[in-house]
Amino acid sequence: MKQLISLRVNGEPYEVAVEPHKTLLEVLRDELELTGTKEGCGGLGQCGTCTVIMDGKAVNSCLVLAMDARDKEVLTIEGVATAGKLHPIQQAFLDYGAIQCGFCAPGTVLSAKALFDKNPNPTEDEIKIAIAGNLCRCTGYAKRKKALLAVAEQQGKEGGR
Amino acid sequence: MSDAFSVIGKRVPRIDGVALITGEAKFLDDIVLPKMLYGKILRSSYPHAKILNIDTSKAEKLPGVKAVITAADTPKLRYGIPQIYDEIRDEPVLVDDKARFYGDRVAAVAAVDMDTVEEALDLIEVDYEVLPAVFDPEEAMQPGAPKIHEVERNIAIVKRVYAGDVEKGFKESDLVLEGRYVAHAQEHSHLEPHGAIAATDISGNITLWTTTQTPFTIRRDLVKMLGIPLSKINVIGTQCGGGFGGKNEVTVEPHAILLALKTGRPVKMIYSREEEFIASTIRHPFIFYSKIGVKKDGRLMAKQGRAILNNGAYTGHGIAVAYYVGAVFATLYRIENVKYEGYVVYTNCTYGGAFRGYGNPQMTFAIETEMDRVAEALNMDPLKLRLINAPVAGERSACGIFVGSCGLRECIEKAAEAVGWGNKWKGWEVR
């Protein structure tokens, strides 16, 4: 039996009829057609490709029931670049070659963004912990870290944002 | 040099970078076609079992199920890597006689959603006659071992490299060492699973979207396994979410095509992560028996090796991997007298395929371990032993490979300098 829920995604209000066992990931991909959020491990919360930010916190959307996203504010990769301009994290990923196949990139960017939103000048350890849940098999870990350290340095200079 | 060119030596933005980093890039699972169905394969519950009967009637009656296929719906052709090696074609689209590994393809279902597909798979009744299974390739080569295909001692093929005179080389050696090296299986685990969408039109033209790394190869493979003319199949390789060789393989493509032809509707099939581990190809597990002869001054005189590759249930790229193992063995390090035999042996394991290096990592592990053992036996700096025997550009290796360019010496020297090897190496006694 479907139930109607309302939530905000990338600043837009949505009303969606969902079956109670559907996950936030399924609703984002199948109902809202926001396919930048990926599924890699089959809903086990192990790979991190489905990471979105929900009420300021990075979550595996495959482990969040859509019902639990009711009245929440969700940010997906489609909402990270604004007015055609890449977010500094996205730009740094491109500049430092931190994407290869790109399947893990959206989730990793959101994990990093959740950190930077709270802490504009994080340490290397804080960066590593923030993206530890986002697996990459093209072995892009070192370049990701470099890219995010560059963002941290830039934002540190600007005195935070 | 970089100033003389506008592109060479410059950092160039990735052509698909912005699409990937904004989530705009379309991977296979991001494509949805009108009236599209979803499909999945029913897999064998036993590593080795005769299929006595498959009853699909209950599954077919389930509301939402649009098609169930078994071997009876396939042309029963076998495939391998046809354009390279025609001698080994052992893989069926769906098994018609017996399952040869846990997860072998028994049937496939297309339905309106994945929940219905999963329910239908549970309703297919398969009568198995369980057969004895063998998982170790050395056991599989023994007389009386369970026979997986109609070949002697489960040996799919033997690849050989013979050059020079190894017996003479061993006689002229000051030291002869023997060893056994074992390397395990490995799964690619690309984050995007294997998948395909097949769509057909009224004239029987097939459009196939697939996660493949090799669209043209897969197109030729599909022709061989389905008996469909090449002109009828258009293959579109979608944005590839990691492959590492694993997406050289045929997975759900033929099943998606057969289900689409049967239903007249597009069919999407994507491997679950569990299927990735059970049923997609792996790096061949490897056993290597080695004998090496050297002079006191470190020159390699003779190398003899026998590789036993755990092929698993089907051959796939096994022949090519066995060849490359031999090519690496006969090229690194420089050697004139070499004798190599690579046995590709069937077992009831998940089967091997292409995987970053194609046998090179297994062989390199064995060679480098052996070079350290030789250096220790000669009481020689292992770095020096490698520099003495490193091939250089312009040479032709024992297996006939021309070394057109080679920076191995420079690489070893620079790496030694970078890690301060000269200060670190204090001899074998004070390791």
CATH-level-2 architecture of the largest domain in chain B? 2-Layer Sandwich
Give me the count of strands of chain B.
19
What would you call the structural class of chain A? alpha+beta
Largest interface: A-B, 35 and 30 residues
Which strand order spans the largest sheet of chain A, edge to edge or round the barrel? 2-1-5-3-4
Terminal-residue CA separation of chain A:
45 Å
Principal-axis shape of chain B equals globular
DSSP strand count of chain A: 5
Q: CATH-wise, what's the superfamily of the largest domain in chain B?
A: Aldehyde oxidase/xanthine dehydrogenase, molybdopterin binding domain
Strand content of chain B: 25-35%
Poorly predicted parts of chain A: none
Observed structural traits:
heterodimer; A: 161 residues; alpha+beta; DNA polymerase, domain 1; 2 domains; 5-stranded mixed beta sheet; 5 helices; B: alpha+beta; Aldehyde Oxidoreductase, domain 3; Aldehyde Oxidoreductase, domain 4; 7-stranded mixed beta sheet
